[in-house]
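Kindly draft a polypeptide, keeping tokens residue-aligned:

***
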Amino acid sequence: MKNVICIQHYSSPCGTLVLASFADKLCLCDWSNNPLAERNKHRIAEYLQASFKTETSSVLEETKRQLNEYFLCHRKSFDIPLHLIGTDFQQRVW
């Protein structure tokens, strides 16, 4: 069975974000109108050997809740578990 990445859209005051989670961690937060958004999604799916499914997860719901707080100026930092996907160099920088 192929792995599944849960994906949702979030409408923020600054534009629409694409949010995705894998294994109870956020693996994507990108602007939907970003010219590289599709390439970023493809890279993540390939790396995780997974396909996207439009559905929610607990981490996506928590991400949306924290984003809502941020845009209401009630939050200054985030504590979402992240699944960082990148090269060895990118991993060291993050």
Summary: The longest strand covers residues 3-12. The helical segments are 37-48, 58-71, 88-93. The chain has a mean pLDDT of 93. Residues 58-71 form the longest helix (14 residues).
